[in-house]
Write a structure and sequence with these properties.
57% of the residues lie in helices and 0% in strands. The chain is mainly α and 155 residues long.
Amino acid sequence: MKKPAPATTATKQAAPAPKPRGKGPGSLVVLPTEKPWTKSELDEVRQHLHADIKRLVPELEEADEDLHRLMIDSGDGAGNDQADVGSSTFERDHEMTIANNARDMLLQSRHALERIEDGSYGVCEGCGEPIGKMRLLAFPRATLCMACKQREERR
């Protein structure tokens, strides 16, 4: 009877994803090479996000008003030549793009503030690994680590 060969390669298990450690600056997840969040760093991020929200709310309201005005003014297009119709369509599409971008940034800023409060700020929503404090200081609305973001952009 033949004995089974001993396993020569140990199966490598993935390390568990870092878990939020509770509330407060020092409890947020960071990369192993980074120092924990300080109160002043986290306050800076919060201030940046609140400033974005304060700027984006009126910007979004203005873009929505402009879009509404364009929709009313567009009418049925009777009597307009092709250049006028094309120009109106371009302007309307441009206003929709501005409104959608402002809306997305507003939602992302609010989401980042929620993540700070619930202790999940700094955890990649794609893989569960730390995003990195330096990335978050540069782009506080980030929800993906660099590897996941690059993978997303390649798709």
